[in-house]
Design goal:
Shape: globular
Mean pLDDT: 93
Oligomer: single chain
Helix content: 55-70%
Distance between the termini: 27 Å
Radius of gyration: 15 Å
Strand content: under 5%
Largest sheet: none
């Protein structure tokens, strides 16, 4: 955003949420474990809603959103991200909203996910 590139900022903010959710999935496999094939195959996705489910955080998120409306707003914005967003043009305000929803310094989805990895 600081370099005037809202398209990249939007895409990379969403991608950071994807990576964070995949870190939560990976946490379930310890060194020298043979990972569950179904879990491995399912985790090869960019779909944030699916990654939230695979990481087993969906019920935890639902509970947290009941008491934190800001988190609910952030998830509403972030869950619609896709890897195809890198091919789209985003207005500055859209990119700013995505970046803030992922991590706005005092909140956002990424700090919440960090609590679970």
């Amino acid at each position: 955003m600081a370099n005037g590139l809202p398209d990249g900022a939007y895409y990379l903010a969403g991608y950071s949420a994807e990576c964070a959710l995949k870190a939560c999935v990976a946490k379930g496999t310890m060194q020298h474990d043979f990972p569950d094939r179904k879990l491995v195959n399912e985790s090869h996705t960019h779909n944030l809603i699916e990654l939230m489910r695979i990481s087993q955080l969906t019920p935890v998120l639902k509970t947290a959103m009941q008491t934190d409306s800001g988190l609910a707003d952030d998830w509403t914005v972030v869950q619609n991200w896709s890897e195809a967003s890198r091919y789209q043009r985003w207005e500055v305000w859209q990119a700013q909203r995505m970046v803030a929803a992922v991590e706005n310094g005092s909140g956002g989805l990424l700090p919440w996910i960090r609590l679970h990895w």
